[in-house]
Amino acid sequence: MSGLYLDDLTPGDAWHGTPFEIEEADVVRFAREYDAQPMHIDTEAAAVGRFGGLIASGWHVAALVMRDFIANNPFGDTPLLGIGIDELRWLRPVRPGDILTARREIVAVQRSSSKPVGTVTLRTTVTNQHGETVLSMNTLMQFPARPA
Amino acid sequence: MSGLYLDDLTPGDAWHGTPFEIEEADVVRFAREYDAQPMHIDTEAAAVGRFGGLIASGWHVAALVMRDFIANNPFGDTPLLGIGIDELRWLRPVRPGDILTARREIVAVQRSSSKPVGTVTLRTTVTNQHGETVLSMNTLMQFPARPA
Q1: Tens digit of each residue's pLDDT (9 = 90 or more) over A124-146
Q2: Is A51 on the interface with B (CB under 8 A)?
């Protein structure tokens, strides 16, 4: 395996993902399948609604952030094995045409006392083209430790 | 608007969603787009991997749980406006052929002291056909209060 181990990670390590644009057709396609509310799928209803236009489903934004995580392949062949998410906040609407950039920082590395694995806590913040944070969350991942 | 207001919700209110089956083609399709790891998209690699077969992306499971939430339309025309998620845990692998059922319970209703809105905390637990919990999370939603 040519991937990183728990031992290779240090709290404070941080990196940016690749900026990605939100496409209207994708907003509607995702939401029709998983989150079919007028604010996500109906341009006309959304235009006169509280957000003044279509906004992306929060789950769509989260999925796109995952795609960017994978695309940047930060840990080599080590699988990104999610245990859970804490403090996910959808802070601002995400609209078609927005360009989002994720910043990821390792905030904790905890080694199991009994097994060659551990837990990594990653803080992700996602900002739009205006520098506004639109999403933040803490991801817990299971991570292998280097074999003895 | 023919939807529920904050005033209509009481902690302890609980209901089940509709059981839904995980389809292999959907597992692969979602993951190819958003979470392209071998355990989610490559049947042969997954078969000899740690899970002994394909498993669904955790984000896919979360999106399907959202779809079921919408389909059951528990609050009428009131939009499901997510503020965030706490304590999301992917507790067990979800595999093609699994049948999942969500249970939702209102655990807190907090009214704003200054505006006619509030926050509803919903606890969701999702079990498979063996009665095992595969996902749990707390969803925070913004909810309108009844006009005076």
Answers
A1: 999 999 999 999 999 999 999 99
A2: no
Instruction: List the structure tokens of B119.
Output: 């926050």
A70, A86, A87 ranked by CB distance to B36: nearest = A70
* Buried residues in B57-94 as b, exposed as e (16+ CB within 10 A): bbbbbbbbbbbbbbeeebbeebbbbbbbbbebbbebbb
pLDDT, one tens digit per residue, over A3-14 is 999 999 999 999
Give the whole-angstrom CA distance, residue A96 versus residue A56: 7
User: Which of B37, B63, B83 minimises the CB distance to A80?
Assistant: B37
Q: Shortest Cα distance from B71 to chain A (angstroms)?
A: 9
- Say which residue the tokens 């940047």 belong to: A72
Domain segments of chain A as ranges: 6-144
H helices present in B18-57, as ranges: 24-34, 38-41, 43-47
User: Residue B70 and residue A36: Cβ atoms within 8 Å?
Assistant: yes
Question: What ipTM, to 2 d.p.?
Answer: 0.96
> B114: phi > 0 → left, psi -120 to 50 → alpha, else beta; which?
alpha
Task: State how beta strands A117-127 and A99-111 pair.
Answer: antiparallel
The reported pTM is 0.97
Which superfamily is assigned to A6-144 in CATH?
Answer: Hotdog Thioesterase (3.10.129.10)
